Structure formats: C-alpha cells, structure tokens
Amino acid sequence: MSESSLGKNRSGSLGYVLIVFALIVFYFLRDIRELGFGNNSDPGPKLFPVGLSILIAFGGAIEIYANWKVKTQSAEAIGLVDESSALDVKNKRLRAGALMGLFLVYILAMPYVGFTLGTLVFATAKMMLLRIPWKMALSVSVALTLVVNLLFGMLFHVPLPSGIFGLPF
Amino acid sequence: MISDLLQFHVLVPWLLAMLFGIFVGATPGLTATMAVALIVPVSFYMPDPNTGLAMIIGVSFTAIFAGDIPATYLRIPGTPASAAATLDGHQLAKQGRGGFALMIDLFCSSIGGLIGVGLLILIAPQLARFALRFSNFEYFWLAIFGLSMSAVVSSGNTLRGLISAGLGILLATVGLDIVSGAQRFTFGNAELMSGFGFIPVMIGLFGVSEVIRSVLSSPSTSESAIKTTASKDSIWEVLKTIWSKKLTVLKSSVAGTVIGALPGAGADIAAWAAYGMEQRTSKDKESFGKGAIAGVIAPTSANNAAVGGAWIPALVFGIPGDAVTAIVLGAFMMYEIKPGPLIFQQNPEQVHSIFLIALITQFLLLPCGYIGLKTFGWILRLPRNVVMVAVLVFSVVGAYSLRNSLFDVYLVAGFGLVGFYLESQKAPLAPLILGLILGPMVEENLRTGLIKTEGDLTPFFTRPICAVLILILAAAFLAPVVLSWIRRRKQV
C-alpha cells in the first residue's frame, strides 16, 4: 500500500483531539497570574492562550462536523480495502509503534545506560526490528556510535551522557 | 570579504554540509527541511558564525536540487519541491537520458539559484528602506498575513492549515510572557521558562515524524529498472541545450523567486507553477510529460530560485517564506542575528556575508551536485531503514548537543509523535512552524500597539499599509470561494 493511501485512512479523531487539547489549555490558564495588568491597555498574558484555545476548539468542532458529513463515503471506502493490504498496514503500524516504543525506551534509559551503550544496543535492536540482518545492524550501530562520539564527543566537546557505568565517552 | 569565506576552515565544513544536503535530499522520504534541521545543531560548533551560516544556507539549496535525482531516476521525488521534476525527467530517464536530464537540472538549479539570489540582493535593500516606515500595527498584519498565506497555500485544506498555525502560536506562548514577564504553561519547569526550544521542535516534527512515516510506507526503489549510468552527452551539449532554452530558464527563475517570496508558498508550488506556465505557453504542448527538455528546465530552475525568493521576506521583515527558511531564521536568532529592515542599516556586513554565501553556494552546487549524481547508486544501495535509524540517533544527539539537556531530547520524541499524528490527519506542519516563529511577533506587536494607542484598535485598520494588507488577506481567502461560485454558475 502506498504512503498516500495510508494517509487517506485518517481516523477522523483530529476534531476530538483539538477540543480536548483546548480544554486542557483552558484548565491550565488558571496558573497564569495576571500580575495586575490591564491598566495600561495591555490585554494581558492570557489573551492569546484564551483566544487561540477558543479558535482551536472551534476548528475541532468544524472538523467533527466535516467528518460526520463524509462518514458514509468513508464507510464505503473501508469496505473496498482487501484483507491482505489491511494486514500489511496492520503489520507496518505495529512495526512503527514498536520502533517508537524502542526509541522512547532509548531516550528514557540514556541517563542510566549512557549514550554509547544505549546507542549500540538500541540502534541494533531498532534495525533488527526493521528487518536488517543482525550482523549488518550491529556493524552499522558500531560505526554510527563511533561517528557520533568522534564528531560530537571529541570534535565538538559535547559531554554525552555517560550513565551509571561511567563510560569515559 | 570573499577571501574570508574562501578560507580552508570555512570551505571544508561548507562543502561537507552541502554533500550532506545532497545525501539527505536524494534519499526518498527525507526532506530539505529535515536536512536543514539536522545540520543546524552541528553548525553551532563551528569556530565562526559565517562557517555555520554557510553550512545552513548551503544545505538549503543543495537538498532542493538533490531531491530531483531520485525524482528523475525512480519517479520518487526526494523532496516535495521535486515532484514536478518527475514528469519529464523520469520520461527522459526511461529513454536512457537520465544523466543528461540531471546535468541540465544541475546547471538550471545553479542558474535559478543565482537569479533568485540576484533578485534578493536587488530587491531586499529597497524593500528594507520601505519597511522602515512599518510600526507595530503593520508588523502585526504582516505576521498575520504570513501565517494565513502559509495556511491557504499549504497542502491539506485551509482550515487544517489555520488550526496548525494556531497550534504553533499557542506553543509560542509557553514560557515567560514577552510583555509582562508572567509565566505561561511552565509548570514550574525551569527549562520551559524560555519556551520550547525551536530546534528540538523542528527536529521532532520533521525528522522523527518522517522516520515513522517512512516505516509505514513501502519503498518501491527495487521496482525501478532505470539505469543510473553517466550521461554520454557532453557538458557542451548540456550547455548548448540550456542556451537554446534561455528564456525558459529566465522566466521560470523569476517566477520561482516571486512565488518563493510569498509567505507560505515554497519551492514545491514554485516548481509546479513554472511547469504549468511553460506548458501553457509552449508551442509543443504535447511533448510535456513525455520527456520535454523544457519540462525539466522550468521546475528545476524555479525550485532553487524560490529558495532565494523566500529569503526576501525573511531578511526584510523576519517573515519566513517556507519551513526551510523558518528553520534558518530560527538559527539566525541563535546566532544573535535579528532579521528586519534595521539589519540592513545596523549590520550591513552580516547581510553582505549572507548574500555572498548564497551566491558562492550556487557555484559550489555544481561540483557537489556532480558528486551527488555519481554517487546516487551508492545512496540507493544503503537500506532505507538503516538511514532511518541513523536519522533517529542524529536527531537525539543533535537536540541534546544544543544545551546538553535531555529535556530537549524528550521534546524531539514528543514533537515527533505530534508531527506524525498531525500529518496522518492531513494537517500541514509548515504553518505550525511559522506559528511558532511568528507567534511572538503577532502577540508583541498587537499588545505593544494597544499600549501605544491606549487600547484603541483603529490604527490597526486605518493606516494605509495595514489597510492594503487587510485587503490582500481578504482577497486571498475570498478568491477560492468566488472562483468556485463562478465555476458552479458556469456549469449550471
């Protein structure tokens, strides 16, 4: 299935997400202290967040309405998707989800395992997840870690996280 | 000044960055925006600002050209700006003249870039003199104009473009309020006091989200049976062909510059517009789409000229023309370069350096592009998923290296997911970026303007330049509605 056709399978959740987001923004507006502004004709720091969250919620409502209008057409389109391509899409989504999961573990674990060890392990795992043979995945990970360490660590003197193992790079 | 730029320590990183731009641009799925976003953190480590600027400007031009390489050989545009180049370039490749088409493309990109930068040099200082008359009221509308145009012309529908721009402005409100100093949405986090870091947001939106999208899409590079052999046509033949179409090069480059200068209309729109214009005015309309040389020349001259054009509003008003320029503008701010009309008076040396860098880049594009053409086969042999994992690692280290902060890395991941979600919902990302850049400009000018007028909104509507901008804005929004109404009436 092509990228464009994958793109067409949008869930129509954008409207709801926008309204929830606007409500969250509204809730946290109470944390903004006004600091007594308004006397010098400045509408104050809340003006933009308030105005924008109302506009975003309004946009979300229009999105929901527009989706509701094309609902029947979408239902027909879904019926046209054959089983094999649906399975293919599902597999790709699972793989993309797993990749992002690994990526999140990688960055969350970085303060503990350090950049070098983390990159070696997670880059190999990520490539294997994307069906790269393990030997190639491992060698590319080693090369990648070396290049990044040389470029950022040694040339630019960026103190990359060393983790609890205290690796010197 | 030229001698400063042609130093070994400037030229080497500059050329390496341009080759990086070729590599990213020629890799289907990776965009010019992403190439620039990834090079920015590296550029900050250069010994002098000019080297960093040369790297960033060099990448922005080369990545646009490089996108034409897979567009010609594989019919997969490397960047959105190369989509129009697939039409005739790929047909020529099928006829065994891919190398010839790409050599023409390379020279036209360089010439188009030169014309674009030439017009930038001619127009920008004059426009800056005029822009000195602008005050808060005009800047407010100019920023609104830039944001609205990006929403109107970007892919996806206008509503989603506007929502995306709104989200960008809302994100820009995070941190200390520029007028009152009040904290907004910081949740007591010291790292949020200065707002969302522009570069991590950018890397997340354009780097990580593209990796996810790439994993979800099936690369079809193996389907191609196109030979990527070198062209048998000599350079002389290439130059002769371009000379015979000199008017096409000129027209397309000028059109590309003008379109590129419109906020929101980037190199992709410029390329399509130039192709359409050439096809409509050609005596041999039927040959278009079947391997017409003019069909290669028009979009490839226009897309690189548009990059120069996008610099006009960026330098004069601080309004980026497209997402690439938005990133470059963000990087400028980190280099403490403040674009606007005053930069031409207060810091002319800096402006001249930028002009010179952009000009020299067009000449450096020729050897770099040639290397790109020769090594394209090697780029294709690299498994795409390996490149994607490398992009993830560089995204992490690039964001981290800015402030040595893991918080920026978490921002990359968060905005990667946000970017992917928005794109999957057909919401364009460019207006979000412009919102993030222009949000403070909109807010500051509105509020300062109101303080100046003691709460009176009238000057925002009655000053002549404001009125003109409002009229143009109204016309841009109403034109599609009126046109569709006229079309419907004609059908009835």
Query: What structural class should be given to the helix and strand makeup of chain B?
Result: mainly alpha
Question: What's the end-to-end separation of chain B, in Å?
Answer: 64 Å
Task: Spell out the helices and strands of chain B N to C.
Answer: HHHHHHHHHEEHHHHHHHHHHHHH
Total strand segments of chain B: 2
Low-confidence stretches of chain A: 1-9
Explain what this protein looks like in three dimensions:
In chain A, 72% of the residues lie in helices and 0% in strands. Chain A is mainly alpha-helical and 169 residues long. Chain B is an all-alpha fold and 492 residues long. Chain B contains 22 helices and 2 strands. Chain B has a two-stranded antiparallel sheet with strand order 1-2. In chain B, helix 3 packs parallel to helix 15. Chain B is globular and about 70 Å long. The chains are: A mainly alpha (169), B mainly alpha (492). At the A-B interface, helix 1, helix 2, helix 3, helix 5 and helix 6 of A face helix 9, strand 2, helix 10, helix 18 and helix 19 of B.
What structural keywords apply?
heterodimer; A: 169 residues; mainly alpha; 7 helices; 0% strand; flat; disordered N terminus; B: 492 residues; two-stranded antiparallel ribbon
In short:
The complex is a heterodimer of chains A (169) and B (492). Chain A has helices spanning 3-8, 14-28, 47-69, 71-80, 83-113, 115-129, 134-155. With 169 residues, chain A is mainly α.
Break the fold down into its secondary structure elements and pairings.
The complex is a heterodimer of chains A (169) and B (492).
Chain A: H1 3-8, H2 14-28, H3 47-69, H4 71-80, H5 83-113, H6 115-129, H7 134-155
Helix pairs in contact in A: 2-3, 5-6, 6-7
Chain B: H1 2-5, H2 8-26, H3 32-43, H4 49-66, H5 68-74, H6 85-94, H7 98-131, H8 136-153, H9 158-172, E1 175-176, E2 183-184, H10 198-216, H11 235-244, H12 246-261, H13 267-281, H14 293-317, H15 323-334, H16 343-346, H17 348-381, H18 384-403, H19 406-424, H20 430-452, H21 459-462, H22 464-491
Antiparallel strand pairs in B: 1-2
Helix pairs in contact in B: 2-3, 2-4, 2-17, 3-4, 3-10, 3-15, 3-18, 4-14, 4-15, 4-17, 5-6, 5-7, 6-7, 6-14, 7-11, 7-12, 7-14, 7-17, 8-9, 8-20, 8-22, 9-20, 10-18, 10-19, 12-13, 12-14, 13-14, 14-15, 15-20, 18-19
